[in-house]
Amino acid sequence: MSDCIFCKIANKEAKSNIVFEDDMVVAFRDLDPKAPEHVLIIPKKHIESINKLEQVDKELAAHILVDVVPKVAQKLKIDESGYRVVINTGDEGGQTVKHLHVHVLGGRNMTWPPG
Ligand code: DGP
Question: Cα angle vertex 11, ends 51, 62, to 5°?
C-alpha cells in the first residue's frame, strides 16, 4: 500500500535497520524500542493484521514462526536467555501500524500481565 510505512520499509523507500531479510519478510529494529533488543518482523506483502490472514498466507505465517522468529532471536543472542513474541491486533490490542508485524523483544526480564 502506497501510504503504509512498513510497505515503504519493505521496498526500501524508507530507511530502517534491517537485521534479516528474505523473499517473504523483512526484520528490522523498532524505532522506539521497548527492550534492549526489539525487532519487528513484517511480511513484504501488505496484510493489515492477523484478522486479514487468508488460507494462501499459511506458508508465510508458518515461515515467520518456524524459521524467522528463531533466526532473529539467535541473531540478537536472546534465544537462550528468552524473549517475547507479540502481535498487537486492532485498536484495543494496541496496533498502531496497520501492516501485520511481529514484535520480538528481549534482553531484559519481561513482566506479566502486559499493560
Ligand atoms: P504496534 O503498536 O504493535 O502497532 O507497533 C508498531 C511499532 O512500529 C512501534 O513499536 C513503533 C514502530 N514503528 C513505527 N513506525 C516506524 C518506523 O518508521 N520505523 C521503525 N523502525 N519502526 C517504526
Answer: 40
